[in-house]
Amino acid sequence: xxxxxNTIQKQIVFEIFSKMNNHPSAGMVFEAVNEKYPNxxxxxxxxxxxxxxxxxxxxxxxxxxxxxxxxxxxxxxxHVVCRECGAVADVDIIxxxxxxxxxxxxxxxxxxxxxxxxxxxxxxxxxx
Amino acid sequence: xxxxxNTIQKQIVFEIFSKMNNHPSAGMVFEAVNEKYPNxxxxxxxxxxxxxxxxxxxxxxxxxxxxxxxxxxxxxxxHVVCRECGAVADVDIIxxxxxxxxxxxxxxxxxxxxxxxxxxxxxxxxxx
DNA sequence: GTGCGTGCAAACCGTTTGCAATCGG
DNA sequence: CCGATTGCAAACGGTTTGCACGCAC
Lengths: 128, 128
Known about the structure:
2 copies of one chain form a homodimer.
Chain A: H1 8-19, H2 26-36, H3 42-54, E1 59-62, E2 68-71, E3 78-82, E4 88-92, H4 97-103, E5 105-106, E6 111-122, H5 124-127
Helix pairs in contact in A: 1-2, 1-3, 2-3
The first copy, chain A, binds a DNA duplex (25 and 25 nucleotides) through residues 3-10, 25-27, 39-44, 46-47, 50, 67-68.
């Protein structure tokens, strides 16, 4: 039900993006797209990802020590960032979100709405 | 026991930074410093904060929808970001860190080391 | 005196934008 | 057709850096 056009660029970008399982930044998606389709511009990749994130079709993550990362999975889950290389992966864990929200006492008149747990760790490669 | 020099700029920057309780970005610290001490350069403020963060004396946070924020408090605690204006505040909550780390199953060979809970919410001003 | 720390301005890097050309519906 | 979408290149904003000078030690 989108009033948006279904362009070739959009198909290609999301085709390639959805096959990347490393929570890539927009730049990383552009690299991957550019390899096979050098005529698709950087701006288009950035625009398409930002648009999809705004529409809630994908997630835009801000994590420690890295640029914005995009995530195909929009349902509530958590992440780990490698402290060495910045690689990102999903973390399977069951966390009672509402218990967290209720148990928390924010300062200065804030109201809490959502929570996200970010783990820091090491990836396989960087552990040596 | 630092082999670093104790310069006037360093004293001033951290004097002012430690009085800001809004988890400021480097730019915000510079603004505050610049108001009273216009002869201290932006680069110096950025360098001093980055250096202190590298030494573990302060925290460098990357949170949703904002630049890097610095935090005087280095002990383990959690944060909330206003979804409207990006303001940051501490959140008091007791979370069993090791239980989190043990209960979590990271993908792709990651080892977890630390956790940080980031809440999204609204601040007093933006709630209207 | 020595060399670390600073100020300045320019470079940087990821991202965004203005605009004319193009393409999808 | 006609306006949404694209490609390009230039602008942007926050941060970093190279270099010469000055200050802490």
